[in-house]
Structures are given as C-alpha cells and as structure tokens.
Specification:
mainly alpha; 2 domains; Rhomboid-like fold; single chain
Length: 349
C-alpha cells in the first residue's frame, strides 16, 4: 500500500513539473529582462566586478558576470528584438515542455550560451539575450529532427551497442598521438579562441600529466561504454570536452592559462561513482560490473592522492587543492544524481 501511494506521489510530482502554468516562465523571464533594463539601463550588471588582470586561477565572479550579461541589453531596440524572439520560442516550448521544465532549460541555455560567447570574445564587453534566443531556436530544430528520426535512432545498433570499446580507445589514442607529435605546445598555433579552448583539453604539460588523464579516461570509459554503447559514449565525451573547455576558459578568462583533459576525466570520475553506487543499490552485482567499477574507483583514489606529484598522500589531495578538479568532480556527481532521478521517474511512469 505504501509503495502504491509513493508511486502516485511521484507521478503527481512529475505531472506538476510537466504542466504549463499559463506560460508563467515565459512571462516572468521576459518581464525580468524588461525591468532590469528599465531600472538599471544597459550597465546594471557591472555591480559584479571582476579582476582586471588574468591570473589563470578560477574566478567565480567572472562566471556570474558572464551569466548576468545575457540579461542585459545595449538599447531599447536590442531589448525589443530579444524579448519578441524569446516570447515566440517560449510560447512554443513552454506549452510542449511545461513551465518548470522550460524554466530550467532557459537557465541552462543562458549559462552555456553566455559562457560560449565569453570564450569566443575573451572579454566582458558584450550583452544581450539574443544569444539565448538563438540557442532556443537551435533546440527547437534539434527536437524536431529527433522526433522525425526517432524510429531510426530507436533501433540504431551503433548508438546502443558496445563496438569493442572503440570510443574509449579513440580518445586515448588521440591524446597520446597529439602529445607525441606536438608535445605540450602544438595547440599554440591555433588563433581562434573557441577552437583553442577545445584544443587545450587535448594538450598536456608532460608525460606524467598525459598518463594520469588517459588512464583515468580508459578505466572509466571501459566501465561506461559497456553500459551506454559506443555511439552514446562518443557523443557524451564530445559534449563533456566542449562544456568543460568553455567553462574553464570563462572562469579564468584566458584561452592560454590552462591545458589538460582533467576537466573531462574528473567529471567522469564523479559520474562513475554515482552510477556504480546506484547500480549496486539496484541489485546489479554482476561480476563484470563489480570488477570494472571497483578498478575504476581504485584508480580514482590513486589519481586523487598522487595527482602530478611524486609523493603519495592518503587523502584526496588533487580534489582539495585544485579548484578545477574539484568543480569538475562535483559536476559529475550532480550529473549522475540528476540522470538517476530522471531514470527513476521514467520507471514509475
């Protein structure tokens, strides 16, 4: 009886999330943009000050300022164009997704489009919600294509099947070959900021840096590719590379002050820990799953303890004393928890 009541509560919660509350999210966000311009003009976001000098250390204020820039407008014409475009997209998407889901989508879209813009420009002198509108338009197009090709994707063996760990092998070999051919400076010839930021993810300071990252990706990649399939794992790895790169550049505001695949690897570390724990709780105690999961976690501990120094420390030194590693790991944990909750909701419905 308790389980039935719990299932009903979960279904009711999911229904509330998907419900359209008279386009509340669209109206609230549009009014927020208008009010901010009416009260503060085109410079209200400057209340968040950022360091003038680029030190290479992560600066949370830069991420906040970048996010707020999206809600600012140069002038009334830019404001009108952005709000009208957003209303058109909002009326379509909020009706389809529900008010809460649409609000979450807009916040995530704002974060990623604003950080991507900051990476391409490498300065704070930009503003406008039009970048979010373009992102929402792209989302509508991709969603249409997903629905159009849904049946083909549903039965696609390339996405579902593990093709002899080809994706994990590809990313490992790519990192090794780039370091073998170009050392730690091959990415310096790239002038475009966005391309340079992505290239930095595949560059490494030295052979030790490279070894830790490729081994970490390999151990976790074998664990995940077996579960997800080579196609899905390839897409996820590409997305993680892109998003960790643009977030890293935005936080330090420099395309040259960081290199390494660690952002991707540490995000995967957090995700694998959550996935392994939840799979054990669900009763998946197959020998292969246990062996691969425990092996990956043991290597994580060694990586946390050694990092790039030659002295072993029994505590996770790399997480405690490297903010980039810590934030990436936390991001992976959060991603794992969100996906697990979404999977449980689908099971109940």
């Amino acid at each position: 009886m308790q389980k039935i009541r719990y299932n009903i509560n979960v279904k009711m919660g999911f229904f509330l999330v998907k419900k359209n509350y008279f386009f509340l999210s669209t109206a609230a966000i549009a009014l927020t943009i208008i009010l901010l311009y009416a009260i503060g003009g085109n410079s209200w976001q400057e209340v968040i000050s950022v360091p003038y000098a680029v030190t290479g250390a992560p600066e949370p204020s830069r991420l906040i300022r970048t996010f707020l820039n999206a809600f600012s407008s140069y002038n009334a014409a830019a404001l009108t164009l952005s709000v009208l475009g957003f209303l058109i997209c909002g009326l379509f998407l909020e009706r389809r997704l529900g008010s809460i889901n649409f609000f979450v989508l807009v916040i995530l879209m704002t974060f990623f489009t604003s950080t991507a813009t900051a990476v391409s420009l490498l300065h704070e002198n930009w503003q406008g919600f039009i970048i979010v509108v373009y992102g929402l338009l792209a989302f509508i197009v991709l969603d249409f294509l997903r629905l159009f090709f849904r049946q083909a994707l549903k039965h696609s063996l390339i996405l579902k099947r593990n093709l002899f760990f080809i994706t994990s092998t590809f990313f490992v070999l790519l990192n090794i070959i780039l370091y073998a051919l170009g050392g730690s400076t091959w990415q310096n010839s790239i002038t475009n900021n966005t391309a340079r930021s992505i290239a930095n993810a595949f560059a490494h300071l030295d052979a030790i840096h490279l070894t830790w990252n490729v081994l970490g990706f390999l151990f976790c990649g074998v664990y995940l590719e077996r579960k997800l399939g080579s196609g899905k794992w390839f897409i996820i790895a590409l997305l993680l590379t892109y998003f960790t790169a643009i977030i890293s550049v935005t936080s330090v505001f420099s395309a040259t002050h960081w290199i390494g695949f660690s952002g991707v690897v540490y995000t995967i570390y957090g995700f694998v820990i959550i996935d392994f724990i939840t799979s054990i709780i669900k009763g998946n105690k197959a020998p292969t799953n246990l062996i691969l999961g425990i092996t990956a976690i043991i290597f994580m501990y060694l990586n946390f303890s050694f990092c790039r120094v030659n002295v072993f420390r029994p505590y996770p030194h790399s997480l405690l004393f490297h903010m980039g590693h810590l934030f990436s790991f936390i991001g992976g944990v959060v991603l794992g928890l969100i996906l697990n909750i979404m999977q449980r909701l689908k099971t109940f419905l």
